[in-house]
Design brief:
Strand content of chain A: 25-35%
CATH architecture of chain A: 3-Layer(aba) Sandwich
Radius of gyration of chain B: 20 Å
CATH class of chain A: Alpha Beta
Order of helices and strands of chain B: HHHHHHHHHHH
CATH class of chain B: Mainly Alpha
Number of strands of chain A: 11
Helix content of chain B: over 70%
Largest sheet of chain B: none
Helix content of chain A: 25-40%
Number of helices of chain A: 7
Oligomer: heterodimer
Chain lengths: 235, 231
Amino acid sequence: MLRVEAQKQLGDFSLDVAFSTEGRVTGLFGSSGAGKTSLVNIIAGLLQPDRGLVAIGDDVLDDTSRGLHTPPHRRRIGYVFQDARLFPHLDVSQNLDYGRRMNGLTYDRDAQSRVVDLLDIGKLLDRRTGRLSGGERQRIALGRALLAQPRLLLLDEPLGALDADRKAEILPYLVRLRDETGVPMVYVTHDPQELRRLATEVVVLERGHVARFGSPDILSGVITPTEIQALEAGH
Amino acid sequence: MFDISPAEWTAILLSIRVAVVATLVATPLGIAVAWLLARREFWGKSVADAIIYLPLVLPPVVTGYLLLLTFGRRGLIGAWLADHLGIVFAFRWTGAALACGIMSFPLLVRPIRLSIEAVDRRLEQAASTLGAPPWRVFWTVTLPLALPGVLAGMVLGFAKAIGEFGATITFVSNIPGETQTISSAIYTLTQVPDGDAAALRLVAISIAIAMAALVASEIFARRATKRLHGL
């Protein structure tokens, strides 16, 4: 269970959110500037809340009333960024292995091949990162985060930088990720369609506040950009 | 023309030894200082910055004289080092290395600092979310990505160290076999009536060493840059 009660002032913008979720995939939905990335950075420990609490189960990671802040590297929370952020000086397999090395985990060939198969990146292992496509980079970023054996996976608009075809390429992998690995996820997006396919619970953020919280059905009134295009094309 | 005398060889080898030792000792320190200047805010940062660049703008003789006052046998630090650790700088080749290290330090630090500043901090964040504590982020992400700058700094520092003259001759004098580097040997040769040929030989050799260092750094930097773009 993930519990977040956090306040953070960032210039003119103020974030003030409280929710707790049991969801396999918790969708964080909102337009740009709603505070999604700030919220995810707080969960990851990259950003410290001014006031509040972040906890996974009984493990309290942030509690400003006790002056507690667990740094990112001790949280075991995986993070897949919109821009993948693969290490350019390492090849693909070294990127995948990075989290295992940093956490001092023993090499597990089975875990490695499960993730490689799940994401279909076996053919890329010897490649350097410079000439990979956006979709390939994002799959490797997913694998890299998974192989660090996180207890929670944050995905910040992992499809945001991809075109429609590439999105369609990656989405099935995310569905498999949800169904085949036991790692709970927080999935950030401004596309309701992605959440309808993936999320089990949805937090709707508006201007730094939780506007709605519930099952993906709460998004039913929201029309996606692709649906708008389809409607316009129909006329 | 190219019969290099034993005395000239001594000066050449001594110069190389002094510059190599100065560069190797200064590099880790330079990386630490560059990282602090690039990534940390602290009280007195601009003063620290100015002090590091001071040898670049002070007359070398002044730096050499200050070294003599502090690291000489009766200097504050020099006396302590000699009494407690048996380390003597004054009129020894180690003193030449110290003078060269200090004179070349600003040139060494600057490219390293710039390249650390250019490292994408978002990659460092990614490393920390993968479980890397700050010092391992530095060793596995920041430093490898800053490597072209480190190499550039080392070459600049080495070139400065091998050519240093003013501070070295003021601090450790011009003793053949102990502190007489190529530069001070050339200076000595220009002071004697028939020293021209020997001086020219040493000039040619210093040009060759400088060129070799530049070419080597260019090759290393090109390789490192290619790696950094993930190619």
